[in-house]
Amino acid sequence: MRTLETLSGGAWITTGDWIDVHDPADVRTPLARVPALAAKDVTRAYDHAESGFAHWKRTSPFERARVLTDAARLIRERVEAIAADVTAENGKTLAEARGETLKAADFLEYYAGLARQGYGTLLHDARPDHRTHTQREPIGVILVISPWNDPLITPARKLAPLLAAGNAALFKPATETPLSGLLFARALHDAGLPAGVLNVVTGRTAEIEEALLDDPRIAGITFTGSNAVGNRIRRRLADRTVRFQGELGGKNASVILRDADLPAAAHAVVAASFGQAGQRCTATSRVVVEQPVYEEFTRLLVAEVEALRVGPGTDPAVTLCPLSSPRQRDAVLADLAHAVAQGATVLTGGRADTEGPRAHGCYVLPTVLADVTPESAIWRAEVFGPVLALRAVDGFDAAVDAVNDSPFGLAAAVFTRDLGHAHRFADEAECGQVAVNTTTTGWDVHLPFGGFHDSGTGYKEQGEEVLRFSTRIKTVAVHFGA
């Protein structure tokens, strides 16, 4: 079993306590272990971050860009080894893991480019002989809390912009999937990131939560995960001037109108629903179909789903990987049982897959459910697994109403040949991300990303929009007259 160190104050450290990391394709034997930091180690990491920020905020933006660019190069050079570890600890296929690794490098390169640009605006001043401008500055030490479903790309999405802008960070990877985050930190460290600018906190959340969240030096927290945890963090920050960026739950819908290219729509929906075994925040989990094409679309969809091949991510023929942990597998199976109890019909799947070598893994067959009502829990609550629920509706307006009848508002898609319906859907869907004739997943690094309602907060991720979270605006007036 491999033993990994964690990064704190520019040094790779261990402790006397460890967290085992398991492969969800076969959970019997740990594949690696990482240090379980204690509260005092977290406080020491904040000490390092405070010192690192004092140096990094004064570092030339061009030097910051160099570090990010070099880290991206190292990740590309190490893509096969990193992808293998992503697959080993998370379960996703090697193809998905390679894509995630390369996209992490994309984030570093994109924000290296932005680091070279000035963040600000020249403004007119009513006073003669004055020039006034705004400039963006880093806000300080930011706590980054990332989930287990995208253990490499989510840290890259969060860390690249805040580091480019001159902030320092404490990074808490998910307990189930710490290896990917440590490999990302290793690339930045090897690229010359100064000591203390990035500190990785591997540990059991219950043991270090207070030290993580209550340190007075925190300027911002960026979190991706469940609404329950996100809301708990938000309440904890209620009386503090700490910025909170939350990417929370979703219950994303795809609409199939009667004029859609049905085979293409079925293919796109399957890709969006069952990639990474449905463990994407933007995965399609609801499908709203106009009544005249419901039967035909359902037939095409089920045929596509039943063609998926379930197995370990290391098998190149596999197209649906295991869920990321026994806990997640059991939660999805409980959701399925509840859906059936509420009247849903299983068209395909609907159970764990324990055949042969999959007996010791976290496998759930790709599932399509029919006879689902708007009141069903499976229609309203996030499942985060390979489960798709279908409903038939009468007309475009009813389809939009079905999409918007949700506490969430992350992503939605419509499939249609009607340009008017496409534009109306884009205007009326209450979601932060809207797709037309394509998947609810797949938003690139330069595209602002984030949801409405219970899916997120006012701060978006990705693109230049993320700078609203990780920088503050200062207005400067200069009198150059006599």
Instruction: Give me the Rg, rounded.
Output: 23 Å
**Structural class, from secondary structure content?**
alpha/beta
Largest sheet: 7 strands, mixed
Low-confidence stretches: none
- Estimate percent helicity: 25-40%
The fraction of residues assigned to DSSP E strands is 15-25%
Tally of separate helices: 15
Strand order of the largest sheet: 15-16-17-14-13-19-20
Structure description:
It is globular, with a radius of gyration of 23 Å. By secondary structure, the protein is an alpha/beta fold. The chain has helices spanning 39-56, 61-77, 79-90, 94-115, 153-164, 178-190, 205-213, 227-236, 262-274, 294-306, 326-341, 377-380, 396-404, 419-428, 467-470, and strands at 2-3, 6-8, 11-13, 18-23, 26-35, 120-123, 130-138, 141-145, 168-172, 198-200, 218-224, 243-247, 252-256, 284-290, 345-348, 367-370, 387-393, 408-409, 411-415, 433-436, 452-453, 471-479. The chain is built from 15 helices and 22 strands. The strands form six sheets. Strands 15-16-17-14-13-19-20 form a seven-stranded mixed beta sheet, sandwiched between helices. It has a five-stranded parallel beta sheet with strand order 10-9-8-11-12, with helices on both faces. A three-stranded mixed beta sheet has the order 1-5-4.
